[in-house]
Amino acid sequence: MAAEHLSRPNGEPGDGEDPRQCWQCGHPAQHSLFCKYCNSLQRPQVDYYAFLGIPRKLNLDLDALQRKFYELSRLLHPDRYTLKPVTERQFSLEATAILNDAYRVLRDPVARAEYVLRENNLEKPADGPNSVPPELLEEVFEMNMALEELRSGDASVRPQLEQTRQRFDGLRRELDSKLEALFRRYDVQPGKSALEDIRAVLVHRRYVQNLLSQVNKELAG
Amino acid sequence: MSLMQIDFGSLRSSRIVGIDLGTTNSLVAWMDLTGPKVIPAQDGAPLVPSVVAYTREGEVLAGHTAVEKLVTEPDRTVYSVKRLMGRGLGDVGGELKLFPFKVVQGSESVLRLSLGDRTFTPPEISAFVLRQLKQNAEQALGERVERAVITVPAYFNDAQRQATKDAGRIAGLEVLRLVNEPTAAALAYGLDKRKEGIVAVYDLGGGTFDISILRLHQGIFEVLATNGDTHLGGDDIDRLLLEIALEDIASEWGPEQAASPVLASILRQAVIRAKETLSTAPAANIEVEFEGRSYRRQITRELFERLITPIVDRTLGPCRSCLHDAGLSVDQIDEVVLVGGSTRIPLVRQAVERLFRARPHTELNPEEVVALGAAVQAGILSGEVQDKLLLDVTPLSLGIETMGGLVTKLIHRNSTIPASATEVFTTAVDGQTNVLIHVLQGEREMVTDCRSLARFDLKGIQPQPAGMARIEVRFLIDANGILNVAARDIRTGKEQTIEVKPSYGLTDGEVEAMIRESIETAEEDFRERQVREARVEADAILAATEKARQHEAFGELSEEERHEVETAVNHLLLAYHSDDHLLIRAQIDHLNQATMKLAETMMNATVRQALKGTKI
Fold first, then answer.
1. Distance between CA atoms of A14 and A17, rounded to whole angstroms?
2. Sheet order of strands, B406-411 included
């Protein structure tokens, strides 16, 4: 039983429904959330940027994003549709689910970058432990030794691990600023090569993040 | 189109109430023009005890009348049923020995309470409490109440939420929304006091503990994170005190006495009184009289606090996790609001104050604030309240079972709801026609450490080589925090049949059967009441006729007329003991007819008498 992600779950219209027309009054729908003629809510689209109506950038104004989220929540939330026809209730539920998913993904830089990669048919960086970046090889080896000793009851390695943690934390911050620079580059000149670079940093960052959580867990326990 | 209009019309027809269905007490509230108000019961009390008794006479009592049965019929009287909602017999284990009523295995996924000759599921028991609240509201508002918002602990899982919704349906209520209790409290609080900022709601009730952190901004109540424990509350404190008292009694009076369920029930009430006293006094007595003996033990505040410290400490871990998940530090919390009866305990207040380094707010009645918030939410749904909106989260991560008994998370905890995730499934073997998906809730990595939610069987897949089928499954957690699943064959675009087998809880068919039964019971209750009322009326007319027969006017009637009265009386007496109120009423009418002449004669006699005494 294999499972994989699919990025466009609700884009296609249901049986017998023409997506170019309003389901309620039959006027042209023109790809907006609400019908221009009868003001009824339309089947929602799933492109996160288009849905939120924000520019397709990797660097985002988070305050503006939050304002947009609140504004759309007020318009779309199921609480506002309790007394509406069942079709609109269903669309409201779907639209709000997309809105919430979009907001959750876009407000987090890493999730946002992964989303854009996926939309451009670039595989998202894998979850599992992949090959160790060469420059970290020695450090990872030493960390694993120290963790082993800590687990067997030797607390004297704590200061060393604390140091490792700080080092990895610094490394992650470095990668974050690298990512930010790459985001800016992409926003000026979008293209596959910029995305490939972002992907490489994301893979690296995920690796460091995994190491960090590992150390944190052992130090806390 | 016409269907929609009917749909639209019927929804507008009645008011929506807000219900706090608590472990210990329940309340109903509504929005009037000035704001949310609690609707008291006929006796004027705002709280309805969440207690249900099925008496030896076969009558079902809920609320105050059932509380009396806790002592006289402890094995037929249920309290704290909320702790059993949405749970199987396997996972209530240790708790059962503390309940005086018997819990048995119902179907494989539902437990049942065995009371006398009948068994009830927890949703059915809760439905009796809800029906009582519904009646109270109907009496107070003078109209039918058919739609409600019901609150649940924020940390309730899918099965517990579904069970609550089922209870509403069985009680004849359309549950338009389940709202998390701390969120509802924040809504009532935000309406009244603070309008902007970060608020933490600490909710320690009779059986559950929740902590929620919200951002309030221009009428939006956004839950940032929530955490809790659905089996932690005042009940656990009662239990500690009860154990001490029972131990004393076992050593003083002997173990047989201490094993009496009636004693345990009396003692439980005494312990609760002592606990409540200790919130304001430095010491309290646990006192009971039982079968001619008396037991008395003083508990000082100091001992009490030492006893309950582990319980209070258990609330602090979830608080810290919640802060962490919200991405906030303690100093970013603007206010802490206390909810739930157990937050009246001084030690609880101190613990909250120490943790959040802020004096918690207690201006609102901690027992009523959740119901008031539910009423505000009802106002939001009906459109009466336009400027407020709740954005809540799912308390637990949702995942599916993958290779090696691992759980792959699809929707993470503290995601704003509605939230969705889509996965594509395929077959592993040539010609395979169905795929089984096991859905779980929880934070751990192994299937065995998470809570099984349901098994979805994707059926009727066209036979094809392994890995060729592409079935897209959409998991959607709705605004009630309940999972909805839809599946579709990507190649054909056709909806895929899914058979849902909930791990804990009732199937739709079972709920339908309970609704039918409850309607029948309600009709039976109604018929019984009509018979009772008819008999009361019959009593009155029979007494009046008896009196009239002593009157001189009776002698003035003809033989025939007198005979007619006698016959009518006899017929009524015969009908009296039948269960047919229509027959009783018919005979009452008949007797009324037969005594018409008699009444007239008596009236004339009285007038004559009166005139005689008056000088014109």
1. 6
2. B406-411, B398-402, B435-441, B451-459, B497-502
Q: Cβ–Cβ of B479/A96 closer than 8 Å? A: yes
B134 is catalytic: no
**Chain A contact probe: residue of B382, B424, B488 with most A CBs at under 10 A:** B424
> What residues are paired with A21 via a beta bridge?
A28
Residue B100, pLDDT above cutoff 80: no
B236 annotated active-site: no
Task: Give pTM, 2 decimals.
Answer: 0.79
Q: Which residues of B touch A9 (CB under 8 A)?
A: 420, 422, 472, 474
Structure tokens at B413: 């905890």
- Angle between helix axes A86-106 and A109-119 (nearest 10 degrees) is 110
**Cβ of A73 under 8 Å from any chain B Cβ?**
yes
Annotated catalytic residue B166: no
Digitized pLDDT (tens) for each residue of chain A, 221 residues in all: 333 333 333 333 333 455 567 777 777 765 566 777 777 777 666 789 988 989 989 999 999 999 999 999 999 999 999 988 999 999 999 999 999 999 999 999 999 999 998 888 787 655 444 566 777 777 788 888 888 888 887 778 888 888 888 888 898 999 999 999 999 999 998 888 889 899 989 988 888 888 888 888 877 76
Which residue in A80, A85, A103 is closest to B8 by CB distance?
A85
**What is the DSSP-derived secondary structure letter of residue B549?**
H
Report whether A133 contacts A174 (CB < 8 A).
no
- DSSP bridge pairs for B425: A3, B471
Which residues 373-432 in chain B show a CB within 8 A of chain A? Answer: 377, 380-383, 389-391, 400, 402-403, 408, 415-420, 422-426, 428
Residue B292: pLDDT over 50: yes
Q: What secondary structure letter does DSSP report for B58? A: S
Spell out the SS3 assignment of B456-485. EEEECCCCCCCCCCCEEEEEEECCCCCEEE
- Residue B158 among the catalytic residues: no
Closest CA to B177 of B137, B147, B138, B222: B147
Residue A26 contacts B, CB cutoff 8 Å? no
Complex ipTM? 0.77
